[in-house]
Amino acid sequence: MDISHLLTSHSRNMEASLVRELLHYSQQPDVLSLAGGLPDENLMPAYPELKQLTDSRQYGPSEGEKDLRECIVSIVAERGIQTSTDNVLVTNGSQQGLDIVSRLILDESSTILTEQPTYLAACQVFKLQGAKVQDVMSDAEGMSVSALRDAIEKHHPKAVYLIPNFQNPAGHCYSLERRLEIAALLDEKNILLIEDDPYRDLCYDNVDLTPISTLIKQAPWLYMGSFSKVLWPGLRTGYIVSCDAFSPYLVKVKQAVDLHTNRLGQSMITQFFKSGQYPDHVIKLQKAYKEKRDVMAEALNAELGDLIEFSLPAGGMFFWVKLPAGVSSQLVLTEALKDKVLVLPGTPFFPCKSSLDDSFLRLSFARVSPAQIHQAITVLAKVIRQLV
Ligand code: PMP
C-alpha cells in the first residue's frame, strides 16, 4: 500500500534517528556500546523497595516494550484486529497517538473530517498542525454516510476521525449497519480512517462494537486504544495499531517527539494484564458505571424530564444533554458553579464555528457517587428552571 500522498512534505523526508535504531544492539550483552547516551545503571539509585523502578531505569525502545506490545496484540485480537507487534506503537496516552498521526499527515493544506460534535482535544491537535477541521453531521447511529460522502467530495480530506464507541461527548455508539457503510465508503474513496476507541470496555448494554478498521478492505486505517479509562490515566499509556504501511513512519515521529513512553508505566500495565485480573476488573467497572449511569438517567428524568432531551449512553462516561430553547450552556455553568456543581458546556466540542451550538451540556457520571449524582442534578434542575 502506498501512503506517500497522505504524508506531509516534512514527514515524507523524515530521517530515522540512528541512535534509536542502534539501541537494540546496545542491549545485547556481548556488544560494547560506545554509541548511545545511556547512563551507567550501576550509578543509578538502587531503590530496592520498588523493583519495577529498577527494571525500568534505562532508556527503552521507541515502539514500546515488547511484552506490552504482545499484550496489546492479544487485546485487539479479541476485538477482531489481527496484527503483529511490528504494527503496534505504545504512546503517551491516545492523546499522543493523535499528535503523532497529526504530525505525520496534517499541515496547513490538509482537511480532516470529524463527527459533529467531537472530542475537543483531538481538534486542538489537528488545528495545531494548521489543518482545517471540518465536522460532518452525525446522529445517534454515527456519522451520516451521505453527509460524509458529500464532505469527502467537497473537501478532499486527508482522513476521517471517528470515535465509534460511546462517543465523547455525545455518548453515541455506531450501529453495525453504519459501521459497514462507512467502511465501504472509505474503501471506495480510499480515505484514511483514524479510529479512536478509548471507552470500548466501558460497555453496559448489548451493542455491536466491531472496529470499523476490521471492516475496511483496502483503505488505510489507524486504530487507537488507551489504558486511561480502564486502568490508570496518570500513567499516560495508550497505543496505535496501524496497517503495515504506516508503522515505520509512526515510529520515526515517536522517536522525534519523546524517544519512548515511560517504561515504569508500561511495566505496571503489562504486569496487570499478565496477572489475569483484567477480565474481573472490567466486570467491576461495568457494574459500577452502569449503576451510576442509571442513577443519572433516573435523576435527569425525574428532575428535568419535561425540559431537556438526552439519550441513554450504552457505555462510556457521558450524557449529552440538550437544554431547553434559549438556555445557554455557558450560563448554566456559571450559575451551577455558584452552588458548587461543575458541568461542561458543549460548545468546545463543535470544531466549526458554523455548527457551533450553545445548547448542550456534557455530564459525566464516572467520578461521582450515586448520592452525589442526585445532589448535583437537583442543583442543575434548579439552575435550568431559573433560566428558562
Ligand atoms: N480520545 C478520546 C475520545 C478521549 O475521550 C480521550 C480522553 N478524554 C483521549 C482520546 C485521550 O486519552 P488518553 O490520552 O488519556 O489515552
From TrEMBL:
One example GO MF annotation: DNA binding
A Pfam family it matches: Aminotran_1_2
Keywords: Aminotransferase, DNA-binding, Pyridoxal phosphate, Transferase
Cofactor: pyridoxal 5'-phosphate
GO biological process: alpha-amino acid metabolic process
Coiled-coil annotated spans: none
CDD domains: AAT_like
InterPro entries named in the record: Aminotransferase_I/II_large (IPR004839), Class-I_PLP-dep_aminotransf (IPR050859), PyrdxlP-dep_Trfase (IPR015424), PyrdxlP-dep_Trfase_major (IPR015421), PyrdxlP-dep_Trfase_small (IPR015422)
Domain of life of the native organism: Bacteria
Residues annotated as domain Aminotransferase class I/classII large: 39-379
Family from the record: Belongs to the class-I pyridoxal-phosphate-dependent aminotransferase family.
Quaternary structure note: Homodimer.
Protein name listed in UniProt: DNA-binding transcriptional regulator, MocR family, contains an aminotransferase domain
The organism's taxonomic lineage, starting at the top: Bacteria, Pseudomonadati, Pseudomonadota, Gammaproteobacteria, Oceanospirillales
